[in-house]
Amino acid sequence: MNNPKKQQFASDNNAGMCPQALERFIEANSSGHATGYGDDAWTARATAKINELFECDAAVFFVFNGTAANSLALAQITKPYNAVIAHGFSHIQIDEAGGPSYMSGGATLMTADTPSAKLTPAAVEELATKFVGVHHVKPAALSLTQSTEVGTVYALDELRALTSVAKQHNLRVHMDGARFANATATTGATPAELSSKSGVDILCFGGVKNGLAVGECIIIFDRDLAEEFEWRIKQSGHLNSKMRLVTSAWLGLLENDTWLNNARHANRMAQQLADALTKKAGAEIMYPVEANAVFARIPEHVQSALREKGWSFYTFLPPLGCRLMCAWDTEEATIDEFTADLAAVG
Predict the structure, then answer these.
(1) How many Å apart are CA 254 and CA 210, to the nearest integer?
(2) Which structural domains are found in the chain, ordered by start?
(3) CB-count exposure of residue 6 (10 Å: 0-12, 13-18, 19+)
(4) In this predicted model, what pLDDT tens digit does every residue of 190-202 receive, in sequence order?
(5) How do residues 40-76 score in pLDDT, each as one tens digit?
(6) Helix, strand, coil shares of the chain as percentages rounded to 5?
(7) Coil, helix or strand for 24?
(8) Does the predicted TM-score (pTM) go above 0.90?
């Protein structure tokens, strides 16, 4: 590979910390000793800020990463003989190595492959009523990804239609919100409207893809549902002894709508990238660009040529479907350089 690039489109995880999060992190690190395991002022402030943002009095927890957040959250609302209804292209299905099943002691996934990685009420209804009796798994939860793994977003009416079906079948609703900020930026709805006010019981609110270094947030809106959840976190190895060094960065992300501004920028760059790919390079965009992901069909020989030029990206849907992710710090110059290279080798 020649000339590795300063910025890439492989993943929004590849970006560093945003300045606001880093500033708070350094401040917490240099402020002297503090009580461990989350019994500190930084964690208290971050927790209060999240409850203010979501207009609630929820139980709020922090774990190291998104797989742990999803797996622990789903374990809290399922038993070993239960099933979680999810999309076939959800992160919990294709990218978590069976984490939810492991953490729950055996709960399985029931999936549907509906278009654009978005579940439909009819698909949920079909899966919720597929089995009857003790010889089969019993659905207990619905998991929704917002935004989805292909960068599409559930609108408020779509979300509420899905949670309505879930409640009809006594299913708890979990939301994988690794890119919840991007979905919020797209819809213009409030965080509360996109979660608890639309029937979501547990939200895994992502920060790492939006300007943090480590630490995802689990919000359990019904405190009764959070009973003994802290023991799950401890047993799984996700109770951080130096919690303030995670939650201080969260505080920096939450203050002054930095989390939302970061997501808006990433979304805007993704739209700009998609426009440039179609107008300057003639690429075909595979899904609506509604968050910070662009999926484009790129011939295999062109992919190879781009990688030889130093570009990194995933062929997420082989052989042609390439995923290009924008981040909170993606620069217009990076888009211009990539599209110019694509046009040149294509």
Answers:
(1) 11
(2) 19-256 (3.40.640.10), 258-345 (3.90.1150.10)
(3) exposed
(4) 999 999 999 999 9
(5) 999 999 999 999 999 999 999 999 999 999 999 999 9
(6) 45, 15, 40
(7) helix
(8) yes
